[in-house]
Amino acid sequence: MNQQPQVLDPAVREKISTRVSLVGIVGNVFLTTFKVFAGVVAHSSAMVSDGIHSASDVLATFIVLVSMKFASKDADDSHPYGHERFECVASILLSFVLCAAGAGIGIEGIKKIAGLEPVAVPGVLALIAAGVSVVSKEAMYWYTIKAARKINSSALTANAWDHRSDAFSSIGSFAGILGAILGFPKLDAVASLVIAGFILKVAYSIFKDAIDKMMDRACDDDFVEQICNTIAQEKDVLNVDSVKTRLFGDRVYVDVEIAVDGQKILLDAHQVAHSVHNRIEEDYPQVKHCMVHVNPATPK
Length: 300
Fold this sequence. Notes:
- The protein is mainly alpha-helical.
- 67% of the residues lie in helices and 11% in strands.
């Protein structure tokens, strides 16, 4: 982690997330309507599948909205560590939605490739819809990922990658529809299968990231090394004995053990620990809390 993400006030995070999510909802409702209409009129299973994917995006965005509302709540007696992990719960729900959509699209594609269902040659309208979808979804990806990085939100990041997966799937739709128009009708069904693969891959990635954060996965080695270097620069710290980190939603908890001259009085040793604590929380805004334990040592 070479660049430290900006950690904003929960109310500001919720406001940004709400604005981005509403843009996503409006965009996806438009694309869902247009793609399903184009798919039905132009007889393109790939475009209908793409439209279903966009419909799942609308549901996904609602999940993000709800999750940010709960995740931004202050700590209370029942949840003294806060509610950030609610974003992980939302990401898991989102992964299930995407998995169901991907599986359904994949099954329909397999049926048509196997000849179990009739395959029609799609019209040009479906090709136009695919092109519009690629451009629109890529623009929505960049708009959403920029906001996600600004507020360090896993739910918003998952939503951004959902937009990009839709853009990739629309590229597959475009290629399949074009191939079908040029005389290879089953390529439209093949495109549906490719779309399903993209959706399932994104669903797995989102699920894995959320589970890692729910299970208190440690931060990467580079981040831990940066923490160690920062602590070592503090006056009167003789050694960094241990640094443990764990992800809590999109925030980090840090447990540190430092070695301090064993001859120091308790008040002085406490002051060293307090300085380390403040330095870590000031220099690394994604750190929600740092716990410092002092071990007595003999200066060399």
